[in-house]
Write a structure and sequence with these properties.
about 280 residues; alpha/beta; 13 helices; 8 strands; about 15% strand; elongated; binds NADP nicotinamide-adenine-dinucleotide phosphate
Length: about 280
């Protein structure tokens, strides 16, 4: 992989930041010397410095000032304080180009710009493009699905850099920002729906007489196998389902119950509710 030519810094050095740091170093995108992180938790910083050999700072502004790509990886409720701390710093400015990439769930581009842009003139704003990303927890195992949106100052090169960074932990698709609520509802919250389905399948396995350990193994392996078929055969989910549903067979007996109980409409309604909630939370 061609190494990255921007220094990357993380503000907030929690679970997501660590997933990115491990993936960036592991994939060869940047060596540890190209990365740094800041956090309020000194123990956390020591752990990351020991584990990855990256520079760490107690001061968020140090990361902002020294990096070309600044990842905001704090919780959404911590974002306002973090942004105000940066924009209120007496050395704040954007004399050289810097890409801000926020992974804070439900935190709109406009809210970030509302703090970072007022102290800057137009030249400074152009130098400080912002990208908002909605990743999901499988980033922790390098299988993330991320959606990203950029503001008007981001160039094709900025988007390409953001994409390369996000591809270190999985896949990424670019969307208009209004679609990020749908992304949040489908892939952001999606892992929880799969865990919920897994919980139900395990409980069902136990109900039909299996041990819990066997029900867990059968469930996890079946989910993995089904996903692999979806990924490798090129066939639609519906076509694959029909193939294993013989008339009068066992699968059909189960699917009849799903249909009688409105399984598919329930899922569609649930994800609609998640998208509506994402829209409310990101106002
Ligand atoms: N986890 C996911 O799957 C997922 C998916 C999509 C989006 N996201 C987003 O990713 C972001 C990070 O999530 P996470 O799971 O990595 O959270 P996390 O583990 O809580 O990491 C956030 C880190 O930031 C630190 N912090 C708090 N206030 C700070 C400040 N003012 N300056 C610097 N650092 C500060 C926290 O320290 P303390 O713990 O001491 O407060 C913590 O170490 C969130 O905005 C979340 O919405 C996460």
């Amino acid at each position: 992989m061609t190494p990255f030519d921007r220094l990357i810094g993380f503000i907030g050095a929690g679970n997501m930041a660590e997933a990115f740091i491990g993936a960036i170093i592991g994939s060869g995108l940047l060596p540890p010397a190209g990365l740094c992180a800041a956090d309020v938790d000194a123990d956390r910083l020591r752990t990351l410095a020991d584990r990855y050999g990256i520079a760490t700072y107690a001061d968020n502004f140090q990361v902002y000032a020294s990096c070309d790509l600044v990842v905001l990886a704090v919780k959404p409720q911590q974002m306002q304080a973090v942004l105000t701390g940066i924009a209120g710093h007496d050395r704040y400015g954007a004399p050289r180009r810097k890409l801000i990439l926020s992974i804070a769930a439900g935190y709109p581009l406009a809210k970030i710009a509302a703090v970072l842009y007022p102290p800057l003139d137009e030249h400074g704003r152009k130098n400080l493009p912002i990208v908002r990303v909605m990743p999901n927890t499988p980033a922790l195992v390098l299988t993330a699905m991320s959606g990203m949106s950029a503001n008007r100052y981001a160039t094709a090169e900025d988007l390409d850099d953001a994409r390369r960074l996000l591809e270190a932990v999985g896949k990424v698709v670019t969307f208009p920002e209004k679609d990020l609520d749908a992304v949040t509802a489908l892939s952001g919250s999606g892992p929880a729906y799969v865990f919920y389905l897994a919980e139900a399948l395990i409980a069902a396995g136990v109900r039909v007489g299996l041990s819990r350990a066997d029900a867990e193994l059968l469930t996890v392996t079946t989910l993995k196998g089904a996903v692999k078929l979806l990924e490798t055969t090129g066939e639609s989910a519906e076509a694959l389902r029909r193939k294993v549903t013989s008339p009068g067979g066992t699968t059909e007996a189960a699917v009849k119950v799903f249909e009688a109980r409105g399984f598919k409409p329930t899922i569609i309604e649930a994800i609609g509710a998640a998208a509506k909630r994402a829209e409310e939370l990101s106002r």
